[in-house]
Amino acid sequence: MDVNSFKQINDTYGHAAGDNALCAVTTALRSSLRITDLAARIGGDEFFVLLPGSNEHSASEVCARLRNAIQDVSVETRDGERFSLAVSIGCVTSRGEEMTIAELFHDSDLKLYREKQADPTRDAKSVRPQFMQQHYANQRGQAVGVHASDA
Question: Cys-Cys with 81: which of 13, 42, 50, 77 at CB 3.0–4.6 Å?
């Protein structure tokens, strides 16, 4: 999983805002995962989440819960500006086969890359000030205040 447009967050709002964004993602992870799940930041804006005992259906549910929790986050900068977050997730399961964590990580990384390639505008959409998201949501006929950046 990685935070979309993380470099843009740092470049636009500063590294303190980027740190706040990472803390917000961590909070969303904690609130969305089971006690048996394992989440680790593996560098920059990338996280790896291991869901022991999960099948495709339950893993997909966790991914959806994570997306929703993270897109509901509103990060405030030191200047009082607010921005929301979006993530890309490469969700894979072992499908009952024996797989090492390294193999799961590799497969999830490939799927994450494909997800980003499928929507090349994903990064451009994910870091918008809140008032811009409300404007775009209204233009699409959605409710005011929608914070989902990949809607």
Answer: 77
